[in-house]
User: Which sequence fits this backbone?
């Protein structure tokens, strides 16, 4: 059975969109995910039903030039309904965590606490969450555009097995759905385009759709919905 992925932050503000030209101009390399923050706190939630396949500190230090991506987490979500109508298995890589609340092998469900985002890793300008979605679940810890040599992401062993790095990422905005009570907006001064904010709400559950049809039918017949 397929599933939708909801936002990892309930009130998500995009600070840098997927493959943002402004990001590339500033940093000198492309951005293969979405950077985001939330005014409601730093708690990061699971986006769907998945399995934690990697977790930990990517460099020898949590911050500074040798810290690479900081504290990272990789979750594989199976049978994800994507915006183009295709159903895919996806690897989700998240970087710059302050704390990690799960461990390898854990099963998670949408809304489960994964940790809190922070400012770990190099090349950061403040606390935020980087979220990256990849169609390559055979090598879920290989990230295009990141140097080989990490403890979790792009380990030499994984790179030798794969033989190369390939950009197989997807735009998270083309996959995400707004869960109940969730909001998405652009952060003030953020590097994003309108498409980075074009996330649809979750489809109504079948029971809800059936109820709405009953209400519509009653209203059309002029009897109101009080008797339903």
Assistant:
């Amino acid at each position: 059975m397929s599933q939708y992925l909801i936002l990892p932050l309930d009130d998500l503000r995009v600070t840098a969109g997927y493959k943002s030209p402004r990001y590339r101009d500033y940093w000198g390399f492309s951005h293969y995910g979405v950077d985001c923050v939330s005014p409601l706190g730093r708690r990061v939630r699971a986006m769907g039903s998945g399995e934690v396949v990697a977790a930990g500190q990517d460099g020898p230090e949590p911050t500074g030039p040798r810290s690479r991506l900081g504290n990272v987490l990789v979750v594989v979500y199976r049978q994800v309904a994507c915006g183009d109508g295709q159903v895919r298995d996806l690897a989700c890589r998240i970087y710059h965590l302050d704390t990690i609340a799960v461990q390898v092998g854990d099963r998670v469900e949408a809304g489960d606490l994964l940790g809190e985002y922070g400012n770990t890793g190099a090349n950061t300008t403040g606390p935020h969450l980087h979220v990256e979605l990849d169609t390559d679940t055979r090598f879920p810890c290989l990230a295009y555009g990141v140097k080989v040599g990490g403890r979790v992401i792009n380990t030499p062993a994984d790179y030798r097995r794969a033989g190369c790095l390939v950009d197989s990422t997807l735009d998270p905005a083309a996959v995400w759905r707004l869960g109940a009570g969730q909001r998405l907006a652009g952060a003030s001064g953020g590097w994003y385009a309108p498409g980075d904010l074009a996330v649809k709400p979750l489809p109504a559950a079948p029971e809800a759709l059936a109820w709405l049809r009953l209400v519509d039918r009653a209203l059309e017949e002029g009897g109101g919905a009080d008797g339903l």
Q: What stands out?
A: Residues 11 and 183 are 5 Å apart (CA to CA). The longest strand covers residues 87-100. The mean pLDDT is 94. The chain has two domains: 5-197, 203-228.
